[in-house]
Amino acid sequence: MIANTKNNAMLITGESGAGKTENTKKVITYLAMVATGSGKKSEKKVSLEDQIVATNPILESYGNAKTARNDNSSRFGKFIRIHFTSSGKLAGCDIVAYLLEKSRITEQQEVERSYHIFYQLLQEYGKTICPEGLAEKCHCSTDIYDYIYVSQGKTKVDSIDDNEELEYTEDAFKVLGFEEQEKYDCYMLTAAVMTCGGIEFKTKGRDDQAECEQIGPDTYPGKVAALAGVDAFAMIKAFCKPRIKVGTEWVIKGQTCEQATNAVGGIARAIYDRVFKWLIEKCNDTLIDATLKKSNFCAVLDIAGFEIFEYNGFEQISINFVNEKLQQFFNHHMFVVEQEEYVKEGIDWEMVDFGMDLAAAIIMFEKPMGIWAILEEESLFPKATDKSFEEKLKASLGKLPV
């Protein structure tokens, strides 16, 4: 990197549970140590490594969950850039995250669990975090089964001590310099997300209009509103009778119970996603040394693992697609291009095919009027349904050999 003044990147891929995240931690530690290995020890460089390590408990609490194959699976991808000065001195680090699996926030399969942070909030250690106790501050009960969003699958994982993990998360917030209020806001918004699952709507008479009768401070809607810092009545009105813009005018649209319940789920997922992105921004603020000029970087790409479930959601299909694209990219550069070089140099070499088996599947996703294009088109249609999406897929792709 120093000789050629070119940035370098490392791709870490593999199926779920293969050890990608652990490998990433080792690579980052190694790069930080190499950069600090020039005779005298610099405090700043060592502390940067410590701060990178401190981001792990927070990112793992908010971005990792138990899946069918792995008790601590990263359900998001991260691109970590370690910046150096022109002389090879460590200048900082930043993290880019993408593809957080939002569907897991509101539903899980039988053998799976939602994100670890939800289960940490109810632990005993929370009583030492603030005077009234963390669960009390977050208006939470001690029974995880009161929260339907996070109790559809497993609620306990043998290999993970949630109480101990909450301690690590709390310590990491302190190391990274979070303000007390920022930390509590984070916990409270997380509690609001899982409390959203208790909001229920009913219809009155023959009308399909959704209504929510109980919105007192001790009800689920009341708790969600208090945690999010909004008025409960206004929040429920927005779910049941949202205002939409038609041309230049605003009109009130009536919602059925199903539509209102879906809206609550959508808001819960969006809140959690924004909290996660904000956490990464805060972590990045502490990992950059503004006094040093950044010249080049070494990057590590650690993406979510390849898995095939009984039921594969949109996010998992996207993850598998990205994994396969990267695998084909790796094969092409490591084997195909290398073999072409042998032939150019006149080496007696018999070309070997290194697995383009799934190229047809990739083309099916990417081609014009492929799966991605049809899905985007259907998402823009206001009256599109799962059925209309399925029919378009069959009409466009039904005759393909894959």
Attribute tags:
402 residues, alpha+beta, 4-stranded mixed sheet, two-stranded antiparallel ribbon
Shape, principal axes of CA atoms: globular
Through-space gap between termini? 43 Å
The parts where pLDDT drops under 50 for at least 5 residues are 39-46
User: What class, by secondary structure content?
Assistant: alpha+beta
Radius of gyration: 25 Å
Q: Give, in order, the helices and strands.
A: EHHEEEEHHHHEEHHEEHEHHHH
Number of strands: 10
Q: How much helicity do the residues have? A: 40-55%
Largest sheet composition: 4 strands, mixed
What's the pLDDT, averaged over the residues? 87
Strand order of the largest sheet: 1-10-4-5
Helix segment tally = 13
Would you give an account of this structure?
- The chain has 402 residues and is α+β, with helices and mostly antiparallel strands.
- The chain is 46% helix and 11% strand.
- The chain has 13 helices and ten strands.
- A four-stranded mixed beta sheet has the order 1-10-4-5.
- A hairpin with a 6-residue loop joins strand 6 and strand 7 (210-211).
- Helix 2 packs across helix 5 and helix 2 (43-63) runs antiparallel to helix 9 (257-287).
